[in-house]
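EI: anyone free to look at a 442-residue chain?
SC: sure, send it
EI:
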Amino acid sequence: MLSFENQEVEFKQEYVPEIRKEVIAFANASGGTILIGVRKDGAIIGVDDPDAIMLQVAGSLKDSIAPDIMPFVNIKTVEIDGKTVVEINIATGTNRPYYIREKGLKPSGVYVRKGSSSQPMTDEGIREMIIQSGRCSYETSRSMNQDLTFEYFENEMHKRKIAFGRSQMQTLKLIGDDHLYTNLALLLSDQCEVTTKVALFQGTDKAVFRDRKEFSGSILKQLEDVYQFIDLNNKTQASFSGLIRIDKKDYPEEAIRESLLNSIVHRDYSFSGSNLINIYDDRIEIVSLGGLVSGLELNSIFLGVSQPRNPNLAAIFYRMMLIESYGTGIGKIQRAYGDNEKKPFFETAKGVFRVTLPNRNEGIQKLSKPRKRLVAVYRQPLSSEKAEILSYVAEHKKITRKETEALLNIGTTKAYRILKELSSAGKLHINGSGKNVYYTGE
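SC: here you go
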């Protein structure tokens, strides 16, 4: 008769597949021993076919637990009171947390030993164990979701003629040394858990909502969707210098683009909140979580110093030609405002970084459009790209954004911008809504 079960010992009367839970629980804690052929009360009953049981145990643990737990498991037979018992010794694993492969990194698949029982771990406990196992970087840590797809990301890589396969995913750090998806992969996947919330307000405070959106999906898709939403609300105001008409948008496109990229590359994704963008009549505020990287001050970024919190994500954006080099974004935002009296400003607090882009046209008296019989307005000639689009429409009666991308071999953002400019100029008319939008001639 043995003593009762405890923190380090588990009894099993016979082999059952669920024994893997106890093995995982011991490996995720301080290790322990499982004895097969012993009743819960400690009575020794032995096993009839120890070799078959050892094969079953080894096969089950090898096939159903991830990462590979076998280097930390020793299976053998021992004689107790003249009876044969299968003894499974489990050491603390170095690649914790271990989990049931089919369940994934979820409470239903991750267990830890507490007292004489194996308990499911909480989501927070799983994250903490990942950090404690030596993977302090969020983007290199193992993703808790391993059922990932990359339709949007793969399509964007294809547009840029960048190879994308499993070997490239390992090079880009989407797959770790344990051959599992990392959190970087999660961010770029269609299942990305982070969202971006955009709120459009009337006036200069939060008293009256005009619209609000929450964008999800791959972080790249969110970048594109958010940019388009802001661009739709980025009005153009016309002024005149003599006979020349000057169109100026409320916000420089480059400033918007760089601010959005900055909020994605530098945010701390260990925070579970969303990126926040607030659009007022007089400004846009882009807020990202995480603040400045430890050791840097706000003045440092104006000197061109950059320490990306997510260097692997930044490297992918660089490869996709979304960013040029580290430390140039803030300068681009400032230069985009040129000699404009209103300048962007940057603020940081504990765990938060905010970029505020002022509306360049706010407070400027709008000039009425002169009558054609009095003033001849100078207009820029159409670019070759716009001319090609209009020629296509003349022949085919209509064009879509995707057809524009294929026609000019350009990306989604540029195609959308050119079509919008042609529509604003009255050269094209927008028809339909949502995904069914198409453009027709004058």
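EI: The chain has a mean pLDDT of 86.
SC: 👍
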